[in-house]
Design goal:
This protein is of the alpha+beta class. 37% of the residues lie in helices and 37% in strands. A 6-stranded mixed β-sheet has the order 2-1-6-5-4-3, with helices on both faces. The protein is globular and about 50 Å long. The protein starts with a helix and ends with a helix.
Length: 142
């Protein structure tokens, strides 16, 4: 897959999230894909494998933040890997005020579908993981 294709597919995932088109969104994931929230350090968040588990995580996130909106601020592509810098906006607790925050998503693509997504709140941690994954792949270990 080329850099432009991965960038476009990544943007499409965000569009489908914002439209709450989860059937369409999951079409962009392999059946046994992994969505990993562990690196965020958020309590109760783990790794979710397969469409059913990923859909359940999406629903749980939207129970807490029903107005979640994501916007890509940049996508770096190396081989089959992408690193997206994402601005997410949600409403804060009782105030209802918009609370924007950044997160960083690493995705591995195969034949136009995600096989792995790992999410970070820290840009440096995300960068280090992205570098490690893409180095391993370039040496034939990915």
């Amino acid at each position: 897959m080329g850099e432009g294709e991965i960038g476009e597919l990544t943007r499409r995932t965000f569009e489908r999230w914002n439209a709450r088109d989860f059937d369409g969104l999951l079409e962009l994931f392999e059946e046994d894909a992994v969505w990993d929230m562990t690196p965020t350090g958020m309590p109760g968040m783990g790794a979710y494998r397969g469409h059913r588990a990923i859909r359940r995580w999406f629903a749980q996130w939207l129970e807490i933040f029903p107005d979640s909106f994501v916007e890509s601020e940049g996508i770096e592509v190396r081989g089959d890997w992408g690193l997206a810098t994402v601005l997410q906006s949600v409403s804060g607790g009782s105030s209802g005020a918009a609370v924007p925050f950044h997160y960083y998503g690493i995705g591995r693509w195969r034949d136009g579908r995600l096989v792995f997504v790992e999410n970070y709140l820290d840009a440096e941690e995300a960068r280090a993981a992205f570098d490690a994954y893409t180095r391993a792949e370039s040496r034939g270990g990915g």
